[in-house]
Amino acid sequence: MDPLLIFKALSNETRLQILDWLKEPEKHFPPQEGGDCRKIGVCVSHIQEKAGLSQSTVSQYLLTLQRAGLLEVYRYGQWTYYKRNEQKLKELAAFIQHDL
Amino acid sequence: MDPLLIFKALSNETRLQILDWLKEPEKHFPPQEGGDCRKIGVCVSHIQEKAGLSQSTVSQYLLTLQRAGLLEVYRYGQWTYYKRNEQKLKELAAFIQHDL
DNA sequence: TTGATCTATCGGGATATAAAGATATAATAA
DNA sequence: TTATTATATCTTTATATCCCGATAGATCAA
């Protein structure tokens, strides 16, 4: 739990949106062949299309969120799936409530 | 409540420290003549001395935290006192818990 | 009024972040 | 093997943030 790293990761409109979209992935992204987006996450290209930014930028954003611990990664074949790390988000809420 | 503005304000080690020091001001700052630091806040020069940064930098940091709604200001004569806005911090905790 | 003190603001150089295109890597398909 | 697809990394330009010194306001003391 590195609060500074987390707050930096949250200091960007698009990254906040990505976290929000991933709350209800089936509502914001098209169906995937690879597997249930609730379980394995959403692949980078779907997130990129939704964000309307370049592939490299979105890839960087996802890594930023992952390094902060807010997203989990699952790799299968040539795909990379990202989903929320609800555990970490709960820890963050607890930190803000008790320590900030 | 502007989450992006708040997260940007929290994306700095010194600003996080200032928020922490102001949780127990009498523990971290010398006594003030102007009034009880719990009630009116701590003056800029005390915070500056503790932070070990220039006066202009600390003044900017305090404004950043205030614009985000995390600090409250009280002006008396030539002094400016800052204290935590516990209400806003509670709102932030609730936001993270329910909306992030 | 003059001088001292406290704080805010301005301007600037250094560093970090934003966001893109180009390229590399790795897996799949033909 | 070669071509294609998905993602990551590299490089670069533009913008934002960090942090300072200098200066400006505002208040208080003499």
Describe this structure in words.
The structure is a homodimer of 100-residue chains. Chain A has a single domain (3-98), classed as Arc Repressor Mutant, subunit A, CATH 1.10.10. Chain A is 58% helix and 14% strand. Chain A has helices spanning 3-9, 13-21, 25-28, 37-40, 44-51, 55-67, 86-98, and strands at residues 42-43, 71-76, 79-84. By secondary structure, chain A is α+β, with helices and mostly antiparallel strands. Chain A contains seven helices and three strands; from the N terminus they run H-H-H-H-E-H-H-E-E-H. The two termini of chain A are 13 Å apart. A three-stranded antiparallel beta sheet of chain A has the order 1-3-2. In chain A, a hairpin with a 2-residue loop joins strand 2 (71-76) and strand 3. Chain A is globular and about 40 Å long. The A-B interface holds A 3-4, 7-8, 10-13, 16, 19, 89, 92-93, 96-97, 100 and B 3-4, 7-8, 10-13, 16, 19-20, 89, 92-93, 96-97, 100. Chain B binds a DNA duplex (30 and 30 nucleotides) through residues 8, 11-12, 43-45, 53-57, 59-60, 62-63, 75, 77-80. Chains A, B: GO terms for molecular function: DNA binding; DNA-binding transcription factor activity. Chains A, B: Keywords: DNA-binding, Transcription, Transcription regulation.
